[in-house]
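In line with agreed milestones, work has continued on tokenised descriptions of protein folds. One protein thus recorded appears below exactly as we store it:

>
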Amino acid sequence: MKFISFALGAAFVAALPALSAGQVGATAQVKIAVIDIDRVAQESAPGKALFEKLKVENDKLAAERQQREQEIRDLQTKAASDVLSQDAQARLQRDIERKRTDATRWLEDAQREFQEKQQQEEAAFQATLGPIVEAVAREAGIGLIFRATPGLTFVLDPNLDLTPAVIQRLNSEPAADAAAPTGDGQGAETTPPPPPDPPQDPPQN
């Protein structure tokens, strides 16, 4: 779920000063741990709910985009017909240009609104995640947290990984139970499908 990676990274980094400042002063030995933010987003109930919410919104935009594109293609096919007079073809061409302009404006507005909604949802998730990461770290006596990066971070001791504990804590929150997507009673998938793509440009001649 890459579309929330950067926001979540900021969330857990913001918790570090409060953790390290108090504990470093108390002891010369700082206990270190790691957290996989992407895994938290992929496997936690709130993360899955966030993905599903954005995916539903994106699917609606994609359907409308396809409808607008098809209308333009139909008009282009009709304009290419030899049956129409030159005047009729000219009028049809103007209709095509108008629809293309409308589609472009709609696309720009839809992309902006989708991005704003995504940022708002990520900010809400971040607000929930930050305090939980800090609480889990404090309970474990952690003074410094590193973000796990595939290919760069190698955790030899599973006890140093806060990810499972953070996911469990997120899932135990009341909001997580209400937001978790429901299915056939077997529970949510371990890994959600890829994040949605934004709407694309309308077709050109």
Summary: Helices lie at 5-14, 16-26, 37-43, 45-79, 86-139, 163-172, 174-179. Residues 86-139 form the longest helix (54 residues). The longest strand covers residues 32-35.
